[in-house]
Write a structure and sequence with these properties.
Layout (H helix, E strand, L loop, with lengths): L18 E6 L5 H5 L6 E5 L13 E5 L7 H19 L4 E5 L1 H14 L11 H17 L6 E6 L1 E5 L6 E5 L4 H10 L2 E8 L10 E5 L18 E3 L5 H10 L2
Parallel strand pairs: 1-5, 1-8, 2-3, 2-4, 4-5
Antiparallel strand pairs: 6-7, 8-9, 9-10
């Protein structure tokens, strides 16, 4: 007899990892959300917006800086070495790249630097193709990581050239990569910040969307229901897991 697991008895829990792209405008609580994930945690910091993490235990941070154009290839290669080491070590329960948008700019310059035009050249189609191939490999490789993996990104208003339809998407180079994100990641979450509403007597709220909302793309493999939830000030990870366990 084959070993059979009953789907009716299965639910998201301690033994499961989450791979998510988490995107939204600045100030929507992306850092606060991922900081609630299981520790120990390693953060590859490209954005230099770490104040929400100050004073927290169990979080190791490696910061990357490409303040000068000439630094971009060096910092990209340093990140690749560090990422490989962290992934191989398996000492972290959560790994974060904050943010994919800033990282994107640096690695694009790296692919320019190894191309025919050199570092200061304008990206050409072969450069974009090289970067796209790297992303396809990098995102696929994340599936082998047993830890939670969170990639944050800024939001981008994208207009489809054929239909003229505008959508809100994570800001990353490559139209084909954007279209493939929902299949490459189990979770694509959009974060929204709503101001106080005097009519309903509700204060400022941070909303997590896991279903398409207005013009924003979003998807989830385990979250059901309405497709949105108000995140608590503390314990956002636990609230998300609880939401995923609800029938």
């Amino acid at each position: 007899m084959p070993i059979i697991a009953k789907a009716s008895e299965m639910k998201i829990g301690e033994g499961d990892s989450i791979r998510a792209v988490l995107y939204g405008q600045a100030g929507t609580g992306k850092t606060q959300l991922y900081s609630s994930f299981p520790k120990p945690m390693w953060v590859a910091d490209w954005d230099k917006k770490l104040k929400p993490l100050y004073g927290m235990e169990g979080i190791d941070i490696t910061s990357y800086a490409a303040s000068d154009l000439q630094d971009a290839p060096k910092e990209f290669l340093r990140f690749k070495r560090d990422w490989k080491e962290v992934k191989k070590g398996k000492q972290y329960k959560t790994i974060v790249l904050d943010s994919l948008t800033s990282f994107d700019t640096v690695n694009l310059k790296y692919f320019c630097s190894i191309g025919k035009g050199g570092l200061e050249s304008t990206p050409t189609l072969p450069v974009y193709q090289d970067q796209g191939s790297y992303y396809a490999f990098f995102f696929s490789e994340l599936k082998s990581i047993t830890a939670n993996v969170i990639l944050t990104a800024h939001e981008y208003f994208n207009e489809d050239e054929e239909s003229g339809v505008i959508s809100i998407q994570p800001l990353i180079t490559g139209r084909m990569i954007l279209r493939k994100l929902p299949s490459m990641f189990e979770e694509v979450w959009y974060l929204e910040r709503r101001g106080a509403d005097k009519a309903t007597n509700q204060g400022e709220r941070f909303i997590l969307h896991w279903k398409p909302w207005k013009k924003a793309i979003a998807t989830s493999t385990f979250l059901r229901g309405s497709g949105e939830m108000v995140l608590p000030e503390r314990g956002a990870y636990d609230a998300i897991i609880k939401e995923g366990c609800m029938k």
